[in-house]
Amino acid sequence: MPPEILIVAIAVLGCLHCAIGYAAAKVAIAKGGNKDLWIPVGLIAGTPALIAALTLKSPNLKLPSFKV
Question: What is the pTM of this model?
Answer without folding.
Answer: 0.77
